[in-house]
Amino acid sequence: MTAVEVSVVLPAYNEADTIEQTVSATLETLASFLPEDTYEVIVAEDGCSDRTPEIATRLANEDSRVRHVHSDERLGRGGALEYAFERADGETLVYFDTDLATDMSHLEELVNAVRLDGYDVATGSRWMPDNRADRPAKRGIPSFGYNTLVRTVLRSDLKDHQCGFKAFDRGALETLLPLVQDEHWFWDTELLVKAQRNGYRVKEFPVDWTPKGDSKVDIVRDVFGMGSQVLRTFWELSVSPRITREVSLGAGTMLVVVALLLMTQYLDPDRVLREMAGAAPEIIALSAVVYAVSWPLRGVRYRDILVSMGYRERWGFLTGAIFISQTGNLVFPARAGDAVRAYVIKARRSIPYPSGFASLAVERVFDLLTITLLAGVVMIGLAATGSAEQLLTALTGGTVGGDAASSGRTAVAVAAGVGLAAIGAVVAIVASARSDRNLVRAVIGRLSSDSYADYVAGIIEGFVGDVQTVAADGSAFTRVGIGSLLIWTFDVITALIVFEAFGYSLTPSLVAVGFFAVSVGNLAKVLPLTPGGVGLYEGAFTVIVASLTPVGVAAAIGVAIVDHAVKNVVTIIGGIASMAWLNVSLTTAVEESQSAEAIEPETND
């Protein structure tokens, strides 16, 4: 029996009307240039809901050159192709879209580029000078924009990354596939980009192409899906390799130094230092004790979250895990400490990684909602008393110096965006938890008609489902909510005690503004724009306090710096003690947690 040399995969999702004609045309074209019995055609039927599986099975029974590879569930475009390629017999692996938009006269050139000419990858192109492609504006403009973005951001030399007409050498593809993360529409692009980055020979040649069917911009697929994947791949290939711990700490230190130098342009640093030097150390020490009291409350709240998800742990251990993770957030970039907590409870209590990340997500939602509500209540009070106008004047530079106002504007803008997003997310999640309808898929379905929406919906549903576990349990929701309110109240009280240390009496007005300033400052530092939120917190705090109270700018900055420093010092001391108690290395935890996404699926047995 002659060995199969070429395997052609036809990705099929609900193609009952065209699949038989496509298979027939493919066999006829392959027979025109390949020896008999050296090729096969595989229908990669991806969880279809129409008659495609029945037709594919019949075609395979009628012709030994045809095979049917079935998947019970949707794998996505890239996932279905990988699944079929793993089961193919040929050394040259080919696929093209079943609508036959690319002229089949190019199939011989595609196959032989890999089979005979020694290329590792070959791809048709609709954007080379010699091709003929009938591209209406609604297809051509998005395609041109997308390919320009990929060439610019991902440094690709190819003109067209999404033409569904490609061939691969089996050895090269088997090496590349573990590097490709996307399983849907971005699969082609990511594979081509990484093939180039890894030195494989890629041939791009012009093809004649005629669009089949209608096409339109799809918000979920094109904007959320493709755009986010371009950014993810850019980070993976161009940014992440350069971010060592030393670089991160160095860059973070430089940001803080630059911020301090800029501060000298609009404020005498000696004045700030004098204000800080005049603070009562015993009262500052008291603020540290008060802030430390809030940490066991964090452990109790986290225990309640895990209990609602089916895991029972002691609050003392969980407090230590939180200390370690928050210390990681102060030391490492991009909130890497969040993943550390998932590692700690996995390594010490065998709680699966997915559960660890889900519980952390629930905690973050409650944190954001609580902080937003605290800020919102005070903002309503400010509006009622007319003080909101003073804040707006400060943000435009009217009462607070230029760079301080700029920092405050940035911080308040970030805080407002985060707060609104938190409220919207929680309202949607709670409403969904109380409803029998699947609101996630309903909303995404309105935005997108593409099959990629199923993939996106699945990711969001996983997160929403974990939050709903708590939201649907009235008792758990109440306990976690009250715990969050107490935790952030202690955070504000710590700042108010620091005001006392600076010699300011706690009038009702200062207490209200203190609640607002701390809440907005904490919202501002949610995005990991600086190490530990240094700069954003102080900026928001200063511009609010200086514009709404008799406290001067220098004193407000001093209070903000000391308040933030007290909280960070308590966190680091607790983190070091917890690492010693639980025998956890922070660097090891970060390294281990980076591969957490590949860990086994969650079980709640």
From TrEMBL:
Keywords: Cell membrane, Glycosyltransferase, Membrane, Transferase, Transmembrane, Transmembrane helix. Pfam families: Glycos_transf_2 (PF00535), LPG_synthase_TM (PF03706). One of its GO terms (cellular component) is plasma membrane. One of its GO terms (biological process) is protein N-linked glycosylation. The lineage of its organism: Archaea, Methanobacteriati, Methanobacteriota, Stenosarchaea group, Halobacteria. It is found in: Cell membrane. It is a multi-pass membrane protein. One of its GO terms (molecular function) is glycosyltransferase activity. Coiled coil: none annotated. This is Dolichol-P-glucose synthetase. The keyword Mitochondrion does not apply. CDD domains: DPG_synthase.
